[in-house]
Amino acid sequence: KAGVTQTPRYLIKTRGQQVTLSCSPISGHRSVSWYQQTPGQGLQFLFEYFSETQRNKGNFPGRFSGRQFSNSRSEMNVSTLELGDSALYLCASSLTGVDSSYNEQFFGPGTRLTVL
Amino acid sequence: GNSVTQMEGPVTLSEEAFLTINCTYTATGYPSLFWYVQYPGEGLQLLLKATKADDKGSNKGFEATYRKETTSFHLEKGSVQVSDSAVYFCALSTYGGSQGNLIFGKGTKLSVKP
User: Least CB-CB distance to A105: which of B97, B102, B107?
Assistant: First the structure.
């Protein structure tokens, strides 16, 4: 079974631009969560999608948004990029996510975003 | 709010040494606790978990016991190998046993020398 895939793996943008990152979950998984990893703040939860609906959201500004498609693939978008958005963005998928008794989250390799 | 504190790294050990990485948490309710490992250039992998007090999670020689009285979940391994070199993250979730909305510690980088 293929793991979680994220594209692109590396991305360089300039301030003010916008960016879209993609995540394909493990086949059969319906929940996709996104995390931001930086040296200063560590790993922080961005949001979770389940059945095309945002079910949970972390404490990030509205410039960060996401969506999920009917095939469970998910995208996250960051508009008006700032230098501080440079980070590794990790996607994780699980069978059903938050409201089940136990669902392991499987992480992708991440997208390394650099904002110049 | 909920938070996780783990010992700062880096930690450098010789092969076959004993490993302890301390982790304490603050949470309302009854969190589930996890240890994740991140190898260079890769995403996170679940190493072990515990969903209630006194549970012991174990995997690949690593162990951690959920101590509610001390709000701790320290990671231990009796004899580390070079292949254990990675960054280790302690995390909690307050949604029962599921892992939606994980809250992570800052991570501890472990380097094992031959």
Answer: B102
Contact: A43, B43; criterion CB under 8 Å: no
Structure tokens at B89: 């993250």
pLDDT in tens, A7-24: 999 999 999 999 999 999
Alpha carbons A37 and B33: distance in angstroms, whole number: 19
Whether residue B66 contacts residue A9, with contact meaning beta carbons closer than 8 Å, is answered with no
pLDDT tens digits along B55-100? 999 999 999 999 999 999 999 999 999 999 999 999 988 764 444 5
Q: Does B69 touch chain A (CB under 8 A)?
A: no
Interchain contact, B100 vs A55, CB within 8 Å: yes
Q: How many CA atoms lie within 13 A of B71 on its CB side?
A: 14
- Give residue A25's identity as a one-letter amino acid code: P
Report the distance separating Cα B106 and Cα A44, nearest Å.
10
Q: Which residue has the tokens 């029962």?
A: B96
Q: Do A105 and B107 touch (CB under 8 A)?
A: no
* Pairs of residues, one from chain A and one from chain B, whose beta carbons lie less than 8 Å apart: 70
Buried-state track A85-114, b at ≥16 Cβ within 10 A, e below 16: bbbbbbbbbbbbbbebeebebbbbbbbbbe
User: Exposed e or buried b for every residue in B6-42, given b needs 16+ CB within 10 A?
Assistant: bbeeebebeeeeebebbbbbebeeebbbbbbbbeeee
pLDDT digits (tens, 9 = 90+) for A83-103: 999 999 999 998 875 555 556
CB atoms under 10 Å from CB of B114, counted, come to: 7
- Cα separation, A107 vs B38, in Å, equals 10
